């Protein structure tokens, strides 16, 4: 498994936000996939931030 960095995940979130904004004239069902994926990426980013926080505490 490839280690994902916070920057990489943030780039994915930005991309998904752009895609969602470009769907303004589509039906709500069209938003479901990118919204689900963005939620997943945001959870993954938060998990990395929390992991980094506790690793920094341990190293201090």
What is the topological layout?
Layout: H1 6-21, H2 32-59
Give the tally of β-strands.
Answer: 0
Radius of gyration: 15 Å
Structural class: mainly alpha
Continuous helix count:
2
Average pLDDT, rounded to a whole number, is 87
Helix content: over 70%
* Range of strand content: under 5%
Low-confidence stretches: none
Distance between the termini: 29 Å
Oligomer: single chain
Query: What spatial form do the alpha-carbon principal axes imply?
Result: elongated
Helix and strand succession?
HH
* Main sheet record: none
What does this structure look like?
There is one protein chain. With 60 residues, this protein is an all-alpha fold. 73% of the residues lie in helices and 0% in strands. It contains two helices and no strands. The longest helix is centred in the last third of the chain and has 28 residues, at 32-59. The mean pLDDT is 87.
Summarize the structure.
The chain has two helices and no strands. By secondary structure, the protein is mostly helical. The longest helix is centred in the C-terminal third of the chain and has 28 residues.
Question: What would the keywords be for this entry?
Answer:
60 residues, mainly alpha, elongated
